[in-house]
Amino acid sequence: MEPKEVEQKLAELLSEGEMETLPQEQAVKRKLPFKTEIRIRTEHDPVAAETKAYRRMAKEVDDRYDRYED
Known about the structure:
Strand content: under 5%
Mean pLDDT: 82
Number of helices: 3
Low-confidence stretches: none
Distance between the termini: 74 Å
Helix content: 40-55%
């Protein structure tokens, strides 16, 4: 088959039959990305451990971050 014939055949196949339509609200919801949140429970918090290590190495000028320490 010639490329033109193949393209024409494909166009006919795609345009045959009734087109499926959804109500606008459902169509909009399908296009929205899923909201996902992944949480992992651990007994060891690597961020807190690293923060404590840095605080042992250096003294802060003010105490504004003391309330976040365990």
